[in-house]
Amino acid sequence: MVRSLLTLGAAALLGATAVLADDIPTCSLDKKCPESAPCCSQYNQCGVGAYCLGGCDPRMSFSLDSCVPAPVCKDMTYKMDSLDRYKDISEYLGDSSKTDWVGQGEPLLYDGNVLLTMPPKSVGTVLATTTYMWYGNVKARLKTSRGRGVVTAFILFSDVKDEIDYEFVGVDLQTAQTNYYFQGIPDYVNGGNATIEGNSYDDFHDYEINWTPDEIQWIIDGKVGRTKKRSETWNATSNQWAYPQTPSRVQISIWPGGADTNAKGTVDWAGGAIDWNSDEIKDFGYYFATFAEVSVKCFNANSPPGTNKANSYYYNNIKGTNDTVVDSDKPTILKSLLGTGTNMNKGDGSSSTTGAHPSHSSGASVPGGGTAQVPGGTNPGAGTGNGNGANPNGDGSGSSNSGGSGSGTSGASPCQASGFSQSCDEGGSNGGTNPNSGSRVADRTLGASAFAVVIGFAGLLLL
Questions:
Q1: CATH placement of domain 1-22+72-312+362-448
Q2: Nearest partner of 123 among 443, 407, 383, 378, judged by Cα
């Protein structure tokens, strides 16, 4: 079992930061962000704007109020038949009333569902809800990806790094791996497997997490596959419950656990090195996972923990436990990507779109052959660094995937990166066997996380 920290664009950020500055501030529990770049992002880098929204860790930020308050839980059923309420993270300022999902990568529409895709040499796609669950029930109807080294994930993840997971390794289509973590502490005895009846790639299944202050249930097709009680998680050393307990976003993703940039233990856990020249790539042009529906039912407690009576959640203590969460009326929307939790009106708003990717308009080939006119067909998002996979075998700590660069293998799309752009031409290298040939060229210009870095540093210059 391996832990995957599903970061939004970590790889793109790392590439962009190398261009923009020699040493972007990083953050940890022992090293908080500086006042000039006060927000500690999900991937432990400091900045403003997008760094201060979803995933911002208040414990590692300059102050508890550096992060923007998070939108409270809403009972929702997300029919995954449209991308109208999805935004790339470079375009989101915190208004959850207008946007259901934020993310990065190449989500596509096909046959009334959303595909999370992973083209050759990329780092996949990740989507996260804009509202947060503070206990409750979440269910996803999905088909996983397949192939060695290919991982599909459906998780709950909080800003202080509490986590509840489903992960699916593409070489084992009858097993759902389950896990949980408290504040990102890498305890690898928390995992357990649940059996899937049938085939997770060919058949839709309902994967469910029922999360209360007292227990977590992982449920597949209505049958409880695993239960973990809070009473079983007491840590005498830290004198607290090592149990996920803070408001969390729903995150869904596909990522390359078998990438050659990962630790050997992660690659082994993912079923081996990923094959960028597989039949899946030849037939479709990408690996993919299919999502039909995600539903959220809030816990709706009358008193904390687990309420959603007001507008937003924030933390009033660095402990980051459920008794430090406040259900408040604080605003959640930045005026621009120059803002922070302590200066939410900074900027005139124009920076939220300047330099962002062009509109999605070109047709894209989809599984099953043929070409469909779908949003995201020419998504220039730079991919997603979804996978800080720690080594379950003790021979390495794992690392954030650095996909999105390098040359394509024979039969796959050649992808080359320079500066902030990456181009992948799906045609021309495979003799026309790929139904995507000539129909999808992803000009990944100024990917979302790279864009956030640009805006973040523009903000620093104005501080």
A1: 2.60.120.200
A2: 383
